[in-house]
Amino acid sequence: MLCTNIATTLGHLDEHSRNVIMGHARSGTFAYYVSVRDDTQFAFMETPARDALLKLACNSSLTRDASAPQDLTEPQKRSLEYDQELNRLKRECQGIRSDLIAEFHQLNKARCADPGRYNANRNLQNKVKARRKKIHDEAKEKVRAEFFENIGNHIIDQNYQGNPMKFEPDMSHIQPERKELADLEFKNRDVDTVDDAELIEDRIRSLELRLRLHGLHVPKALRKRVRFESMPLIKSEPQSFPWKSATGLECPACLGVPHTHPVAKQFEYSRKDALQRHFRTHRLPKTFPKGRQCDIPSCSEVLFTLPQYMLHQAECHNILL
After folding, report:
1. Structural domain tally of the chain?
2. Is 156 in the same domain as 180?
3. 173 band by pLDDT with thresholds 50, 70 and 90
4. Do 258 and 281 reside in the same domain of the chain?
5. What number of other Cβ atoms are within 10 A of residue 24's Cβ?
6. Which of 35, 132, 249, 259 lies at 20 to 30 Å from 122 by C-alpha?
7. How many helices (H) and strands (E) does the chain have?
8. Residue 29 near residue 22, CB atoms below 8 Å
């Protein structure tokens, strides 16, 4: 009788109460793991219902399940392009754009000559982006909702078949030196049984790795883009760079920064406009009073103005800034 009263009093939690227990706004997903309205966890765990919920919530953030889909797959993203409303907006935008180019040859000329149609084209482009983002977010929420609705049955079924769920995180964006440092400093061992000489060696190695990491800076904008999985740890010799870039998508200013990671230095951007936006973040001055040597390692040309620097990169190294 006491258990029934506790379940009646504490089991029927509203959304606000679940937010307080879980600590974040997506606590509604918690109901897929534990039946909140008819909580029998306390009877099985031999603890009060509120304590059972708190312990379970504190030990694992269920709505941040590592095996849950974090984004749509590539086939799912491609299927979004078949949306009728999106295709209609894309056709209208392409039609106006083609007419402007046919009449004025360049969109920049159409901005002054026919601002009405030019603005209509820009508005349609913004609508295409907004529509694509809307259907992407809706599809992502649908995938996550379907995952959490069936997660309990899926876990039980996999465990029954002897195939427990496993999650392999994507560690390709983590520097190999950081992995080595983490493996060194977070060894699962009893220090009372470890020789003092081994502990001192590990400490010295840890300091060496920290000094090495200090000299291998990765810009914040590239920390989620650069992949280190196929790269050796550190090369002491200077990194070579061809005289003419094959893709024209590398940033020459990054090549001249001495403490940047070698892979981050030669990172290839997806498009030329992305490279140009990144290059502007270096905020190079308009003039170089003392001269600035070209940042390409094999080039010794000295330049004195920013336009001269950009022209030199385009003509000599095939990099358009």
Report:
1. 4
2. no
3. low
4. yes
5. 10
6. 249
7. 15, 2
8. no
